[in-house]
Amino acid sequence: MEKDTSFLFSGITFNRKKFANDFARFKEKKESDDVVEKPSLIENVSSTIEEGTVVRVDKKRKRKAAPLDAVEGFSVFTRSKSKAVDKVVEQNEDAIRQGKKEYHRQLERDALFRKKHNIHVSGSNIPSPLHSFAELRSRYNCKSYLLRNLTELGFKEPTPIQRQAIPVLLSGRECFACAPTGSGKTFAFICPILMKLKHASKDGVRAVILSPTRELAAQTARECKRLSKGKKFYIKLMTKQLAKSADFSKLPCDILISTPFRVQLAVRKRKLDLSKVEVLVLDESDKLFELGLVKQIDAVVKACSNPSIVRSLFSATLPDTVEDLARTIMHDAVRVIIGRKNSASESIKQKLIFVGSEEGKLLALRQSFAESLNPPVLLFVQNKERAKELYNELKYDDIRADVIHADLSEIQRENAVDNFRSGKTWVLIATDVIARGMDFKGVNCVINYDFPDSAAAYIHRIGRSGRAGRSGEAITLYTEADVPFLRNVANVISASGGEVPAWIMALSKKKWRKHRPQRETISTKPEDEE
Ligand SMILES: Nc1ncnc2c1ncn2[C@@H]1O[C@H](COP(=O)(O)OP(=O)(O)OP(=O)(O)O)[C@@H](O)[C@H]1O
């Protein structure tokens, strides 16, 4: 025994006299039962080294061979254990060091990638952005039907908002997302919903998307169906009829898309239980948080009582006031901003045209149509009365015009949108009812016949053109009455790279509450004929 183990003591002379008793006890024990002790110390150490724990090792102790005199009672086995422990600790420490290095390298790579795509984030532990749609599969096990649908739709690469918001939501984090009009926000929230729900179920509503208008809700429902093609999810658009009479406890529904009014109506009537909702999206969230809608939103948020719900806010304009309000209900939310917050899409060429008076507008419009009408064209006016007036003026001109406003029935509004989408209508006269979110492919020009009533309204209106990287044009007509508000729009134009005359930039900025001046009737008929 002595001989066999002597190599363990190389360089050390054992003081048998001094340790006579210990030696005898040790010898006795080994010879009597021949039990090899379990490496309990190693076990203990390794079991207490959890992933990510920083373990410190006294390197001096390790390097210097302690004289045996100093390790009174230390057995051969504990010495060997001590070496093994040191080795394990060292390996763990090495792995942790490597892990930390790699983690920091990854953070640097993410920061560079975000910079390249103009992605700004804030919040803790933000997941890496997507480099490609293929990462949806490699990182999040995305099913093939979804990737196939993306290919069919011609989505080759994620847009910046999709690159960052999708991983955030897939990691179960709540999110404020602000990205320019036409930059693919819809898929950024639909994709995580489809991936989270995995398959259809009849266990109640699991995802709710709220939109400020019926038109946008209908469009989002259509988009949801397109993206989930090949997978049978129950996707329901809340219509007037459903809100009034459907009993959702009997109606299978995985994803419900609606205006807040209709959802809260159904909840109030106890026809809709939202307690199992896992995902809640507030699309065009700043609009939803406006006075008049905020109470309905509050009712829906309260009804979605599942403690593990993931909520997100999406818009092209997200004022600080809305963020502050939303923060009171959100948990550890990540903020994702693409480009500059509250700015217009850079692919839209923006122009301001002075027309003097109301009369001048109609002349300018007809002249511009005569010179170069490049349909489809969207014409925005201040209210439904003016929409009707302008339509009456243009309907006999040879330009295939139509109109959409809140006084029309649901079917009439649907037809107006469909005809414009299909190209049957060249010029669509509209109120702000379709200013947000509507995705009309290839709108060449947006004309603000009436000056918008806020900078946000301006950004959303003109954002109906220049979508998905295409170019577009926006013309804003202004009269003397609009001059005090000109600077606010000018700022949006200049922030997105457009040119604004110096005299406009020199105007003072007027605090912009709703700017809706009393305007003269739109008519070219002499007054006695009316
Ligand atoms: N990754 C992508 N590649 C190509 N096209 C895309 C991609 N993602 C979305 N699109 C298309 O871009 C267009 C605009 O997308 P979307 O309507 O989601 O914009 P948005 O950011 O929600 O705009 P808004 O602020 O006006 O609501 C749509 O026609 C959509 O099909």
Q: What would you call the structural class?
A: alpha/beta
Shape: globular
Bound small-molecule species: adenosine-5'-triphosphate
| Mean pLDDT figure | 84
Beta fraction of the residues? 5-15%
Give the terminus-to-terminus CA distance. 122 Å
Please state how the strands of the largest beta sheet are arranged side by side.
Answer: 1-8-2-7-6-3-5-4
Number of strands: 14
In DSSP terms (H or I, runs of 4 or more residues), the helix count works out at 20
Largest sheet: 8 strands, mixed
* Helical fraction: 40-55%
Residue ranges: pLDDT <50 for 5 or more in a row?
1-14, 22-74
Computed over alpha carbons, the radius of gyration is 34 Å
Write up what this structure looks like.
The chain is an alpha/beta fold and 530 residues long. Helix content is 42%, strand content 13%. Strand 4, helix 10 and strand 5 form a beta-alpha-beta unit. Helix 11 crosses helix 13. The protein is globular. The termini are far apart. The structure holds adenosine-5'-triphosphate (ATP).
Question: What distinguishing features does this structure have?
Answer:
eight-stranded mixed sheet, 14 strands, binds adenosine-5'-triphosphate, six-stranded parallel sheet, 530 residues, alpha/beta, disordered N terminus
Q: What is the structure about, briefly put?
A:
A motif (Q motif) lies at residues 135-163. The protein has 530 residues and is of the alpha/beta class. It has helices at residues 20-33, 40-48, 59-63, 76-116, 134-140, 144-153, 160-170, 185-197, 214-227, 240-245, 260-268, 285-288, 294-303, 320-327, 358-372, 384-394, 410-422, 455-462, 483-495, 502-505; strands spanning 119-122, 175-178, 207-210, 235-237, 255-258, 279-283, 310-315, 334-338, 348-356, 377-380, 401-404, 427-430, 445-448, 472-479.
